[in-house]
Write a structure and sequence with these properties.
CATH class: Mainly Beta
Order of helices and strands: HEEEEEEEEE
Distance between the termini: 45 Å
Number of domains: 1
Number of strands: 9
CATH topology: Porin
CATH architecture: Beta Barrel
Strand content: over 45%
Shape: elongated
Helix content: 10-25%
């Protein structure tokens, strides 16, 4: 099982490297549609029942940024990523934007159960305490926009996401697929 995990991570990294090195020479370099600068969207995890909400911003060059908010496994997550477009591929019916990205995620992870208050009067409140942990992410993806609906894009990300230890040593590390939908406001 452990070898399969490392093999999958190696394949993902190799895929990202091949895309990054081949893209400039293989794909047409037309610019993005004017309607694709600032988008709001959702990303569904391919393996875990989790949905993140995010905002994506593309600059005039090939760089972009993404920030989001989500919850998984009982903790809150704020991922922040830098994006780089490998190419702008325009056909008559679809615009395709392959990209790579990476960044950090700020996570509020349950770290224990605690009670506070006055035990003599019975004014006690109990709850789960949390710790803030910084995680990382690296991924490659592709976004498809059809000319019939120029503000709506569908996409998929393949990558690795990691969050360090939290409650009882719990850590989250995933190499997998995430599906996303964005609506571009501008």
């Amino acid at each position: 099982m452990k070898h399969r995990k490392y093999l999958l991570k190696t394949c993902v990294l190799l895929f990202l490297f091949v895309c990054a090195s081949a893209a400039p020479s293989v794909f047409a370099q037309d610019g993005p549609p004017e309607s694709q600068k600032i988008g709001v969207g959702i990303r569904a995890d391919g393996f875990v029942a989790a949905v993140d909400f995010n905002v994506r911003f593309w600059t005039e060059s090939k760089f972009g940024f993404e920030a989001g908010y989500g919850q998984r496994y009982g903790w809150k997550e704020v991922p922040i990523s830098a994006l780089y477009t490998l190419a702008h591929i325009n056909t008559d019916s679809v615009y395709i934007r392959p990209y790579v990205g990476g960044g950090i995620s700020i996570n509020s992870i349950p770290s224990g159960y605690s009670c506070s208050g006055d035990w003599e009067t019975g004014d006690i409140s109990c709850g789960i305490s949390s710790a803030t942990k910084i995680g990382g992410q690296g991924f490659g993806g592709v976004e498809f926009t059809f000319t019939a609906v120029p503000r709506l894009s569908l996409g998929v990300d393949v990558g690795h996401w990691r969050v360090p230890s939290g409650y009882k040593g719990l850590s989250f590390s995933e190499t997998g697929i995430k599906f996303n939908v964005h609506y571009y406001l501008k």
